[in-house]
Structure formats: structure tokens, C-alpha cells
User: Fold these one by one.
Assistant:
Number 1:
Amino acid sequence: MQSSIAQQYQERIRGLTLKDMDRLVREFFLFSEEQGPFYEKITCGGSYTRIRQQMIEKVHSGSGTYPELLKLPKEEQEMVETYLSDTLLGLYGRWIAQGKKIPVDRMISLATDLLTDGVRKYCR
């Protein structure tokens, strides 16, 4: 089942690069919303860590690295990819834990801002 979910997500983000971060984040949140409560438990629940990690690895293995990262050594590519996926999953998990009180479009915008610019925007 997790392989099927990962494959469906891969198909949605195929061809997107870091320059498409707004679309990557949007697709992640919209895809996740379409999957329902079971997916939320897999994605956010502590007892599903192994299943979640298998899904992440499936997505990463099927999509390769982002072309923008190819100039970096492999270890640095992996660090950037880990930062992006862990941050996005962390934000999604917090949103779920808070009961989705922030509207999904605002959450997508907030996550995109944080992933592309960090906290600089909020420090002004």
C-alpha cells in the first residue's frame, strides 16, 4: 500500500525542481489531504516510523535528486534533501496535530515561505 501511495505522489511531482518549490509544497499538501486519516497516521504517527521512512525512501529513489543540487557532493545533496523533506513533514505533522486550524492554502503559503526563505521574512 505504501508503495502505491509513494508512486502516486511521485507521479504528481514528476518534473518539478527546487525552482518549483511552491508547486512541490502545494502538491504535497493537496495530495496528503486527498489521502485521508489513515495517511495522516502513517505520515505523522510515531508508531508508523518504519512505514513512513519506506515511503520517503521510495519517493527519493524514484525521483533522483533535484538538478539544482547536482553540482554539490552527494553527501551535501542528501543533507539538502533531508532538510526539505523533514521540514515539510514536520510542518505537516504540526498542522495535523493542531487540528488543521490554519486553512490549507495559508499552510501551503507558510510552508513555501519557510522552505524557500527560512525565517528571514519573519525577522524584519
Number 2:
Amino acid sequence: MDDQLHLYNAFANHDLIAFEHVFRHYFPRLKKYASHFVSNPDEAEDLVQDTFVQIWNDSEKLNRDKNISALLFTVLRNRCINQLKRHIIEDKYVSTQIRFQSEELYHISFNHEDEYISVQEQLNKELDDLINSMPEKCAICFRMKWIDGMKIKEIAEKLDISTTMVDKHLSRGMKIAKEKVPSRHLLLLLVLHSL
């Protein structure tokens, strides 16, 4: 118990050495635990890191009667459950939007004087036009992320730029996309293109 009290006091005083000791000791077990909730190892790692950040930030309010291990696993469990809830809400939103957009697609008129263009060809053309309207680096990052399905880290490595720069290009690209395409159509455009 004295060790626990010492750790809590060290945390409350923002003792980096004590924090690092606890981090190194518990991180592998916590990551494995989080992996039971989420299948993506990067997401599990993020949840564990967020748990440590939360405990570090709330160190002065910690319940000193609780075992440090129990505290870490409890905070992580709650974060994992909240993450799962977010995934469920996002999945429901996306499926609802796809259903609405699919219904809209049935009402698209193909009364063009040109030859018949399939919906997929039309979507590809609209997406290409949208991406081509972006600044060069922005367009490259946007295409790699949303068309090629690459992760931000992969894009950064391929283009030899920082992940922060990739985020900035993607954010700018999304801003341009939202200005040019209504958000409900943009979602459909990106989702259907990836099918």
C-alpha cells in the first residue's frame, strides 16, 4: 500500500520518472486488454496513451484508496467502451447516409444528349474534377487518402513530409470539397468510389 501511495503522490507532483516507470510496466498489458475491445492495434495503442494522459492530467484528483493497476484498467475500459459507442454511431450514420444517397441515385436523370454514362463513371468524373480543382500537394494527399486508401503515416513517408503537413493538406482538401460539394453528396461520392 505504501508503494501505491508513493506512486499517487509522485503522480500528483508530476514526477516523470515514476510516471515513466508505470507507463513502461503497464503499457503492454493495457494494450493487450484494449485489443479485446478494438481490432485495430493503432487504435488500441491510442486508447492506452489517452488513458495515461487522462491519469496524468487528473493526478491530483485520483482516488488514493484504489490500486494503480485497477485504476488504469478501469479508465481504459471506459475509454474502450466509449470508443465502441462512437463506432456504432458512426456506422449507423454512414449506413443511413448511404441509404438516403442510394435512393437519390435512383432519381438521377440520364437524359443527356451524350452517350449513356454509368453512375460509377459519373461519380469518378465528379471526384476527379473535385480533386483536380485542389492545389497540387493537397490534391495528391487527398487522392492518396480517399482514393488509394492510404494511411496518413504512409502518405507522409511516400511524399517525404511530416504527418502534420499531410493533415494540413487533407484538412484543406476537405474544406475545398465541402465548399464545392454538399456534405451529403461528398460522403456518398467517397464511399461509393471505394466500393
Number 3:
Amino acid sequence: MNFENRTKDETAELDEIVSKYGSGGDNKTSEIGEDLGKITEKVTLSKETEKSNEIQEKNQDQYENYEIRGNKSFGERILSRQGTFVISATVIVLCLIVNTVASVLAEPPIELPEFNSRVLTIGGGRLPELEPLPVPIPTPRWTEHNGYSIERNGDLIGWIEIEDTRLNYPVVQKTLEQYEESGYNGFYWINRNFDGVWIYESRGTLFVDRHTPIADTRRPNNTVIYGHNMRFGHKFNFLIDYVNSFYYTYQKHPTIQFVTIYDEFDSVYNTYKIFAGIHQNTRQAHGQVFDYFRRRHFNSDHWEHWGGTAQDAFFDFIGNVMDRSLFFTDVDVQFGDEILTLSTCLFEPLGRDVDARFAIFARRLRPGEDPHVNTDVARQNPDPLMFDEWYRRRGGSWGGERMWDTSKVLGFDEWLANNPNWCSTDPQRAS
């Protein structure tokens, strides 16, 4: 026992024991021990009672606090705690959401190659930006012929030839996008040689219409190639022989060879069979203009205002060509054929004050078709549809009768029966 911390009562009891037993010696030892044990037990109980009272007072204070908050039952207090927890958790989640949305909206939009999107941030870091998808670039199957190469001129797109003539040249093309980027007009190559050198008296370079880019898997329905009508058989001068000496020329040269850099150079399917040729004005002052050079795709370009189809556009185009053709051949034409048009200047016989063109039309050899052409049945058209200035200077008028064999244009008769008001002199259809 620690006597240093004893109370007055404990001290009085001890003094009483001392005075009671005095110094009685060994025979009093057992009695003294018993009395001391009782005092120790009493002190211990007193300590435990005091501790218990302190705990009860603390609990009473807590209970009174709960009573002051609303005099709620234990279950109500539990529910109140759960509600407080749920509300707190909800507020935290909403704050996280608002913070995330704000961080997303704060990011500037990034232009991706195929769609617009935003780059999200995760954990403070940015997701890696998407790499632009590679654009497939067609692979040329040949890049050089007779010393003319893509390395020398990147615009090289093909080669054209009429066998056993001087018409044997490279063909180039700048696309519409290239013209817009460079600032040049569509006739960049008309007075430039193959190396791009501009010479006023140059024979120029044969070129494909800029609106119809040629690629391995993308071909226009009607590929238009332009070239000068130069003297002594240069460039497209040879084409005029189909006007001046048709029978002789067509008997020997009924086909054209045109191969793009994406074709097999020696393939028989580079053969195009000639089926028509027209003499046409280019200015409204000289009469109605048949814009054959704009009929590049038979996708209802000239029929969309009338609710037409691609077949309507094709038959309208071919009908206009055949009514104007200076000659007829045994070559048939059908919807889906790939057309080749060669266009050059022709001022005779009206003179240079009438800006006119001569155009040859041919269609590509079909799969499995015989490349041979029966030239024996070819003939000149006795009454082609000409333009107004022609009739003013040379007299006469178009008789209006269709002189060509309409069965050679497969499906044309059925189409014409469904379009009885169609006429090649209708400026809405021809322009």
C-alpha cells in the first residue's frame, strides 16, 4: 500500500490499529494482518466506486447531449447519422464530376484526320494524340517510256498513240487542287513542253482535264484529253484526217491506244474503239454550245434538275454526240463503257474568228471483247447537226432526222420511248 497518498479516514483507522495493538509482539501479528487486509479492500472498493461514478457521469452527459439535439431514440439517431453520411458522399461525388467536366471543357479541341474530338485528361496527363491515317497512294506500274519519265515530270499520267502515225506522246495532268494551289488556270500545259518550259510558239503537251483526276481505282466515265492542232502532223493535227479523208484514215486507224501509269503498258485493254467525231463551236454567239468537254461523269450532272438518273445522263450525252457525228462506225456503245474524248482546235472552213473544236470519241475495249473493228461498214453522216454559225455561212439547216443506227447504242430506243420529248437541239439538255 502506498501510504504517501492515504486519506484522513485511512490515517485515522491506521492510528486506531496502532493504539489498539500497540507493540504486542508476535502474538498480535495475525490480528493486525486481518485488520490491515480489511482496510486495503475497503480502499480498493472506494477507488473502483469512484471510477464507476466518473463513467456514469460521462455517459449521462452524452445522453443529455443527444436529448438536447432532439430527444431522438437510438434508432432515429442511427438513421440521422446514415443520412448525414449519404449526403456527404453525394456532395463529394458531384464535386468530382463537376471538376472532371470542367477539366475536359478547358482543353482546346484538336483537329483529328477524320473527325473532330477532344483529348481527355486522365490522372493529370494527356492521352497521346492520334496519328493521321495514311492515305493510300496508287503505285504506278510503269514510270518511263521513250525517255519521258515521272522523275522528269511528276505530272506524267499516261501515254497515247494511234499506231503508225505521229500521234505518239506522253500525257500529263494537274488536278484541280494543284491548279488552285499554284494559281495557274486549267491550261497550264497548253504552251509548255514536257519539262514545263513556257514557250509561246510551243506545241504544248497533251493533258487530261483537271476535273477528272486519274487514279488506280478512280476513273472518269469520260476522260477528256486536250492537244494543239499543229501543222505537219504534230500533236493532235492527225485527228483532222478523220474529217478531211475519213474513209482512208478510219480504214487504217479505227482505234486509239491510251494507257495510264496505273495500267499494264502492253495490255490489250488499253485499246479504245472510235465511234464518233464532231465539229462544235465553243461560244454562244455562234449558236448553241454542246459542252461535251464538261460531260466527264454520267452521274446526272445535267439531269439533276429534272430528277434524272446516271443512265439519263449517259443517253443524253451519247444522243447529242451521235446526232452531231460526221461519221458512223460499226462500234456499239452501252451504259457503263469508259469513254475517251480527244479535243483539238478546228478553224477550217469558217476561219479563226469562229472558235470551234473537233473531238473524237472512242470507248474502251470490254473484258473478253475482240479488239478487231469491222471498218467496211463505216460511213459518213450526210446530215450532221451543226451549229448556227455554220448554217449562216454555209447555208442549209439540220433536217432533224436521226441518220445513225440507234441500235448501236444499247438501250437507247427504250430510253427514247420513255423520254419522247428529248431532242439534241434542246439547250437545256445539251448545255
Number 4:
Amino acid sequence: MRVKDISTIDYDEVIERYNYDDEYNNEIAIFRDASFSRNVLSDKPTRLDMMVFAFCTKGVAEFQINLKSYIIESGDMVILFPGQIVYNKDASVENCILISVSRKLMESLVPANKSLMNLVFYIFENPVIKIDKKGEAMINGYIDFMLERIKDFKSGNTAYGNEIITGLGIALFYEVIDIVRKKAEFNDKPLNRKHEILRRFLKLLAEYYNENRTVAFYADKMCMSPKHLSHVIKELTGKTVGTWIDDHVIMEAKVLLKSSNMSVQEIAHLLNFSTQSFFGKYFKKRTGMRPGEYRNS
């Protein structure tokens, strides 16, 4: 069960905010000269339930992704995935090319290519990427062509609209991923079964971190021993399963403490702690502060 007290924005809400009807099959929309900070981000933490590509063309703004601060300016591309928590930290509004992709289409566009796993993890940790002029021209070219094909699709002027638009979306995805690969100097070697275990664990963690904080719970879900799961996750990420769980719980707690009017007791209950006292000790052990101290800091 996902924590409900952090607002969520999805593809449909973005379309409603822009009052935009020129989109592909209710699953992908491309906006030029859009306001990223005003229409996707807000002044309160918001959880994404879609994928977002935003290439900024004008202005500067500061915002947070999963409690980390970023400065976005002209020439930056921001890549955001479902589940990430974002919010705008200042009143600046930048112009950008915005691609909003529904969760459903994202899952079909992102191929089951295990060699991309490390790059996806890298983007999670480094969501803001500087794009040079060549990359900018490439992105604009794809977007112009996709907008033309979307119009043809909606007007019935093509018999293969789905195939063409999906193909262009996959091609653009790979172009952007390749830009990231070059900047990060990755070696895209094929991944093994251990990376599949990591992928499954992170998917389960995103779903259950606010319900269960034991290694045994996730190991049981994955039909393996806690020892084996712990060994694989530590080997691949350098972090223990317990640390991954704690990081997710603490991030959620910090967001709720800073952005909601909920009492500490209510937050403890929402995050499935048996008592407020237990939550307070858990929070202080991992942050060095009591929940109330963090809220007032």
C-alpha cells in the first residue's frame, strides 16, 4: 500500500493542467515552451506516477528530487521516473520541451534490455543531464517528427500510426540513454541473474517499504533466503537491504514531516510503526534528530 498523504501527479493530470488535447493515444504528449516547474512540479512534495523528459531552453530554477537539490538551467535535460518525489523550491519558471509519458506506455517503451539496468540506476541518482548543441538538435528533430506523426495519427492519415510513433519513442529513448552512457562513461556489458534479483527487489521495495522493514519479508517474496538476498544486493550496490529499506522510509518520513500537517503520531501510524516512541527512536538512530527536531529545523 502506498502512502497516501503525499500528493501524486500522473499523465492525465498533466494533460488537464495544460488543457491539451493533441496527444498520442492518451499515453504520450509533447509540449513546447512548457513550464516545467509550474505544471509538473509544485511548492509541495509531489510523487510522480508517470515518466517525464524535460529539456530546458530558458531560465533557471531550483528544485528537489527525492530530497536532493538540483539547479536546472538552459541546456539541461531532466529525466524522472514513476515513484520519484519532486517539488519546486523557488518561484522561477523555465521554458522547456516537455514529454509526458504514461506509466503504461513507459513500461512498453523501455525494453526488457538488462544491459540498461546500470544506466537506469545512474539516472535515478543523476536525473539532470547537460545536453550539448548536437544533442539539442537531435532531440528537436525527433520531437518535430513525432508531433507530425501524432497529428497524422489523429487525423487518420496513416495506417501505421501506432507502429511509427512507438518506434520513434523507442528511438528517442535510446538516443537519450546513449547521451547518458557517454557522459557517465559506462560499459554496457550484459547483466546476469544477480541484476534481475536487484531489479525485482527494488520493485518490491517501492511497493512495500512503508508496510514491512524486514529483510526476511522481501526474501520470502522473492523465494530465496535472506542471506542470499543480502549478499546479492550488497555486492551490486554497496548498500545492505536494510539500508535500502531505511533510506526509503526515512525519505518518506522527512517529506511528511516537512510538507504535511500530520502529527508525529499520525506519521508513525501511516508508516506502520507500532508506536510513536518506536518511530522516534528509529528516526533518531538514522538521522541524529528526533522527528520533531527535524520538522522544526
